């Protein structure tokens, strides 16, 4: 199962390639944030995003991010598997 999981952007690590380091439930990984540039503003440190297969696909507010994470945590094994896959992934 592939889930869109919430994470908070910590820093932009490669502006030219639109890569940012995010924190997802304590797991820190680089993701591509380029899909969120279409409105001209993009996202940056402190912003919350939904992440799917290494891409930030939507910006959300902190309340929505926390509610989504709570819901995902109740899914149990599927959410844990998604976090394990995130831990194993690398985008440089």
Taking all Cα atoms into account, the compactness measure Rg is 12 Å
What is the CATH C level class, in words?
Mainly Beta
Tally of helical runs: 2
Which regions contain 5 or more consecutive residues with pLDDT less than 50?
Answer: none
Please tell me what the overall shape is.
Answer: globular
Helix/strand-derived class? alpha+beta
Please tell me the overall pLDDT: 86
CATH topology: SH3 type barrels
**Terminal residue distance:** 24 Å
Query: Main beta sheet: strand number and arrangement?
Result: 5 strands, antiparallel
Number of separate structural domains: 1
Portion in beta strands: 35-45%
The helix content is 25-40%
CATH architecture: Roll
Total strand segments: 5
What does this structure look like?
The chain is of the alpha+beta class and 92 residues long. The chain has a single domain (5-88), classed as SH3 type barrels, CATH 2.30.30.140. The chain is 27% helix and 36% strand. It has two helices and five strands; from the N terminus they run βββββαα. It has a five-stranded antiparallel sheet. Strand 4 (48-52) and strand 5 (55-60) form a beta hairpin. The radius of gyration is 12 Å and the shape is globular. The mean pLDDT is 86.
